[in-house]
Design brief:
9 helices, 19% strand, alpha/beta, 43% helix, single chain, seven-stranded mixed beta sheet, Spore Coat Polysaccharide Biosynthesis Protein SpsA, Chain A
Length: 218
């Protein structure tokens, strides 16, 4: 069984298209599946759209945070509810294309190995100097080697879940698995432009989150 988890935030205009793309690509893999979507206290009509989508497909499970928790704590919450043997994690903004599901699965040859997406150098460079510098400092201080080309688009096994659920709310999955010395493989993919709006992360929020990550993994 495959589980797909995604945090949802202010994405009412694209949720239906996003879910359709997930379902189409899961059906190509020809396995039973569930889709877990958690609305991270959106300020638009995302929850209303999720309610409509749930009525159409029995494989979709929806939840709503009472307050905004942020991307990674919401992912952790979704993983806690997952029942799949294999679990995909991806953002809902269409930068992570579900068409790569099959490629991720083909690369996963054993239970302990996690698969993470990577983007090309040109896209990485567009993140900006400060972002690249932060991850260099993070890697040096925490001794968890993290490249700015690594994304949150990932495929993990149910074997990883208990370790993921033990992570702090100030943590993130890649660092947690790396800290536990799990083998990780990477797959390069074309990360598309955000289909709707801008990132919800302000510079202040990015700085605050970044400092918490460093403190958490020192």
């Amino acid at each position: 069984m495959i589980t797909v988890v995604s945090p949802i935030y202010n994405s009412s205009k694209i949720i239906e298209k996003f879910v359709k793309s997930i379902v189409i690509n899961l059906q190509k893999i020809n396995r039973t599946f569930e889709i877990i979507l958690i609305d991270d206290s959106s300020t638009d009509d995302s929850w209303k759209q999720l309610l409509k989508i749930k009525l159409i497909n029995k494989n979709i499970k929806i939840f709503k945070n009472k307050k905004n928790l942020g991307q990674h704590p919401t992912i952790k919450k979704a993983l806690k509810k997952s029942k799949g043997d294999l679990i995909f994690i991806l953002d809902c903004d269409f930068q992570d294309n579900p068409k790569y599901f099959k490629d991720f699965i083909n690369l996963k040859t054993d239970q302990k190995t996690a698969i993470f997406g990577k983007i090309d150098k040109k896209t990485t460079a567009s993140k900006g100097f400060l972002s690249i510098m932060y991850w260099c400092i993070f890697s040096m201080v925490t001794r968890i080697n993290y490249s700015p080309s690594i994304t949150t688009f990932a495929l993990i096994d149910k074997f990883h879940i208990k370790h993921a659920l033990n992570m702090s709310d100030n943590g993130f999955l890649f660092a947690e698995l790396k800290k536990k010395s799990f083998p990780i493989k990477f797959i390069y993919y074309d990360k598309r432009k955000r289909l709707l709006g801008e990132s919800s992360y302000t510079y202040l929020k990015l700085i605050s989150t970044g400092l918490k990550w460093i403190k958490n993994y020192i």
